[in-house]
Amino acid sequence: MERIRRVALDTLQISFTLDDPKAYTKPWTTLPQTFKLRPSYELTEEFSVPDDNSSPRKAAALPSGSDK
């Protein structure tokens, strides 16, 4: 699970929780990382959804905006 929170107008905080009972005895959570936003940054929403013709690994490896 990925959690991104806006803790201030110009600040994002992100943390990850891995919950895999076969690999870990309990959920593993990263320490929150904080990022300051610059006035020139534009926040956009993106989705990564592989189609039926590509494997998830292949689709995840493609750079944003790539046609292949």
What's the structural domain tally?
1
Strand content: 25-35%
Radius of gyration over all CA atoms, rounded: 16 Å
Number of strands: 4
**SS-derived structural category:** mainly beta
Helix content: under 10%
Strand count, sense and barrel status of the largest sheet are: 4 strands, antiparallel
Structure keywords:
single chain, 68 residues, mainly beta, 4-stranded antiparallel beta sheet, 1 helix
Could you walk me through the main structural features you see in this protein, from its secondary elements to its overall organization?
- There is one protein chain.
- This protein is mainly beta.
- The chain has one domain.
- The protein is 9% helix and 31% strand.
- The protein is built from one helix and four strands; from the N terminus they run ββββα.
- The chain has one helix spanning 56-61, and strands at 2-8, 11-18, 28-29, 33-36.
- Strands 1, 2, 3 and 4 form a four-stranded antiparallel β-sheet that branches.
- β1 (2-8) and β2 (11-18) form a beta hairpin.
- The protein is flat, with a radius of gyration of 16 Å.
- The model has no long low-confidence stretch (mean pLDDT 79).
